[in-house]
Write a structure and sequence with these properties.
Elements: H1 2-13, H2 15-20, E1 32-40, H3 52-58, H4 68-75, H5 86-102, E2 109-111, E3 116-118, E4 123-131, E5 137-145, E6 148-149, H6 156-169, H7 179-195, E7 202-210, E8 215-223, E9 229-236, H8 243-249, H9 260-272, E10 276-282, E11 291-300, E12 304-313, E13 317-326, E14 335-343, E15 358-368, E16 376-388, E17 403-417, E18 420-434, E19 439-457, E20 466-476, H10 479-482, E21 491-504, E22 509-523, E23 527-532, E24 535-540, H11 547-551, E25 575-578, E26 594-597, E27 602-615, E28 618-629, E29 632-633, E30 657-658, E31 669-680, E32 683-692, H12 703-706, E33 720-726
Parallel strand pairs: 1-4, 5-8, 9-11
Antiparallel strand pairs: 2-4, 3-4, 5-6, 7-8, 10-11, 12-13, 13-14, 14-15, 15-16, 16-17, 17-18, 18-19, 19-20, 20-21, 21-22, 22-27, 23-24, 25-26, 27-28, 28-31, 29-30, 31-32, 32-33
Length: 730
């Protein structure tokens, strides 16, 4: 009855329209929409302004699509969601026309007269036909002040800057006129003048449109007012925080020339202190003269805060973290944090033949803001860390921890924005391995690293537009020699670059590209002669204990949820089968082992992904990844090797591999697959299913089967990998 009443009203109010949709007159309240289609009737004359996917975003009616089973699984839509509502359909016509009007098309006509009704199934196919028409073209645009051109009213120095800004910002004659772009230009012009000191600048826009010739004349009237200088800064709220701390963080002071950007930067700097939950920096209503009063409203966060959280990571299993924070330790805006983290390894999946990691960490960090510069802060952090590293052999310690590391780090961070920040970090640590093969192996690490994040993005947690670049240079073991002190510890130089690019194709589709490259130049490694009963053999000491254990955490690995997703964590590329400490009951029993990735001195990874909206917060993804590390399989070692010619000192070596630091095309591993994303406030929850396109024989076999002589069988299911992760891959 609802549908019949709706069409009856349309027949009274819009008789010509109702007749035009005559095929829909016999619908009822049970009529459902099979699908919704769009077509342009004049696409041969005018390029369509919106794609079909963009047009769907403007309308409310929905049809049963080929992806309906996915929608039903994701958010369980009700049957009513696909019932035909004549009133809503007519509103969609208005919505579509409004969208074209705002995009600069005055004469767009939309109808659905080509819609059809299947009376037997009581389903309709809605077909919107759009006659777009020509856009409104700008024929004249000008900026004026006090009855003359704006540029003429400015002094010579400011006039040149204004003309350059105007030419790259304003409308050009021949552009398509849109209300949205006009509002953007108004905002940019006002911001420009306020950044030049005109705190009370105002702007009024007038335009005339000739609907016959589809032409527009636009006039921007600017009243700059006087230049303003900051006469006072008033702070309200947060009485317990020293005013010295607040004023120190601000990029402006009394008698400075006013700048709107300085107010924005000041608000960002106050937030970065971590002391306030609310920060407002604004210019309150006041007399329009050469003095400017700035008002800062603050609401203080709780000075002491305790938090605890838990979660799941595919490589680390169930994880947990607890933190106690003092947000204004000893005043001065300092932050003291006591932090404990645990990665249990429970329910973790490391891929076929892999071993999950496990760790526990405790640390205290003291953050000091404003170290000579407003944008510079320092963090001092002593810590202790226990770990079960899958790259090391097993241990009999508690929780099978095979490595302990303790020390301290000092980090200097410059920048207040997440996408424009540099960091300089020095750490000095003592590391001890507790493996059964090398118990108590201890060494030092003295590392200096310089890194940063540069670029821009519309959303740091779930970007759809922008570019992010993250370079890093790291030097270990040589810092002391620069100061005239004997160097010690692990010696190496490491450089890497990560890039991510995000390009929106439409409102619901984004393309994502990623690139990773890195190179390590190890120091203190060389080639060494080892001996066996059959003669001597030259090996690279980077695969010889204890050097291998020390460089394993530094080498590059590929495979996992964040790069080449067809493989398990670190398992793309050459790998060894580790069998030590495995009990064998009798000679006939089957040997077992685990895969150990070899990694490489160099890495190169490229990835492409298309992400598209399915329904609500649910997204789908199609991706392809390719990556390689520099290590390669060499002549396998079948005999025990010794460090002396008398064959008395056994050499612990991961032989059968070589690494020159060079990558060849044939070393690349390629994978592709499909994924599902769920949008949350902390980023995307990702589930990916990926396939290996060029697996090695070991990639399709378990580590146990690979140890059986003569067994060349493979398992097709090992070609696939499932990855579950949280956050944007980078």
């Amino acid at each position: 009855m609802k549908g019949l009443v709706g069409f009856a009203l349309l027949g009274v109010l819009f008789p010509s329209l109702a007749l035009a949709q005559s095929d829909l007159l016999d619908v009822n309240e049970s009529t459902s929409i099979r699908r919704v289609e769009f077509s342009y009737t004049d696409s041969d004359r005018y390029s369509p302004r919106f794609t079909v996917s963009e047009l769907r975003e403007f309308i409310a009616v929905r049809g049963h699509s080929r992806w309906n089973w996915v929608r039903r699984f994701l958010n369980r839509p009700r049957t009513e969601d696909y019932l035909l509502s004549p009133i809503e359909l007519q509103r969609d016509v208005v919505r579509l026309r409004q969208a074209f009007l705002e995009a600069g098309y005055l004469h767009t006509y939309v109808d659905y007269s080509a819609s059809t009704h299947d009376r037997q199934k009581n389903r309709v196919v809605i077909r919107f036909r759009i006659t777009q028409g020509p856009p409104v073209i700008i024929q004249d645009v000008g900026f004026y002040a006090e009855g003359s051109f704006l540029a003429a009213s400015l002094d010579e120095e400011l006039r040149e800057a204004w003309i350059k800004f105007r030419d790259r910002t304003g409308f050009d004659v021949g552009d398509v006129f849109t209300n949205f772009e006009m509002v953007q230009i108004e905002d940019k012009v006002l911001s420009w003048f306020k950044n030049e000191g005109y705190a009370f600048a105002t702007l009024h826009t007038s335009f005339g449109i000739d609907s016959v010739y589809n032409a527009a004349d636009i006039s921007f009237q600017v009243d700059t007012g006087p230049k303003g200088y900051i006469d006072g800064v008033q702070v309200e709220g947060a009485p317990a925080v020293s005013r010295h701390v607040i004023f120190r963080a601000l990029p402006f002071k009394k008698q400075d020339l006013f700048s709107q950007q300085d107010l924005i930067d000041g608000q960002r700097a106050l937030f970065a202190l971590g002391l306030f939950s609310v920060v407002q920096v604004d210019v309150p209503p006041q007399v329009r003269d050469s003095t400017v009063q700035v008002l800062i409203n603050l609401e203080r966060s709780r000075p002491r805060h305790i938090s605890a959280e838990t979660g799941y990571h595919q490589r680390q299993g169930i994880v947990g973290e607890g933190r106690w924070t003092h947000r204004n330790f000893l005043d001065g805006g300092r932050t003291l944090s006591l932090n404990a983290q645990i990665q249990t390894g429970l329910l973790a999946t490391a891929g076929v033949g892999g071993v999950a990691g496990r760790s526990a960490r405790a640390a205290a960090s003291l953050t000091q803001p404003y170290i000579g510069l407003r944008e510079l802060r320092g963090i001092l952090e002593p810590f202790i860390h226990y770990e079960r590293d899958p790259l090391l052999s097993s241990s009999s310690k508690l929780f099978e921890f095979n490595r302990r590391e303790y020390g301290a780090s000092m980090t200097f961070i410059y920048g207040l924005q997440q996408t424009r920040v540099m960091s300089l970090r020095y750490s000095l640590t003592r590391t001890t391995s507790f493996t059964k093969t090398l118990p108590g192996n201890a060494y030092d690490k003295s590392i200096l690293s310089l890194g940063g994040t540069f670029g821009w993005t519309d959303n740091i947690l779930r970007p759809s537009r922008g570019v992010i670049i993250q370079p890093l240079v790291e030097q270990g073991g040589r810092i002391e020699s620069w100061l005239g002190v004997r160097s010690f510890g692990v010696n190496y130089l490491k450089a890497q670059l990560q890039m991510g690019a995000y390009v929106p194709v439409s409102r619901s589709v984004s393309l994502i590209g990623r690139f990773k490259a890195g190179r390590i130049w190890p120091g203190g490694t060389k080639r060494k002669v080892l001996y066996s009963a059959e003669g001597s053999q030259i090996v690279d000491t980077q695969f010889l204990q204890p050097t291998e254990d020390r460089f394993d955490p530094l080498r590059y690995y590929i495979g996992g949820a964040d790069d080449v997703r067809g493989w398990g964590t670190g398992l793309a590329g050459p790998k060894a089968i580790r069998t030590e400490n495995l009990e064998v009951e009798n000679e006939a029993s089957m040997a077992q082992g685990v895969y150990e990735p070899i990694g490489g001195l160099a890495r190169l990874v490229v990835s492409a992904e298309a992400r598209f909206r399915l329904s609500g917060p649910w997204y789908g993804a199609v991706f392809a990844d390719a990556g390689a590390v520099s290590s390669q399989n060499a002549v396998p070692c079948t005999k025990a090797l010794f460090e002396d010619v008398n064959l008395t000192r056994n050499a612990l070596i991961q032989c059968g591999f070589r690494d020159t630091g060079r990558i060849k095309i044939r070393q690349f591993k390629i994978g592709s697959g499909l994924g599902v994303r769920y949008d949350t406030p902390i980023g995307f929850i990702r589930l990916d299913v990926a396939a290996k396109l060029n697996p090695d024989p070991l990639d399709l076999r378990s580590s146990t089967a690979a140890l059986i002589p003569g067994d060349v069988s493979s398992n097709t299911w090992y070609r696939f990998n499932v990855h579950f992760s949280i956050g944007q891959a980078f």
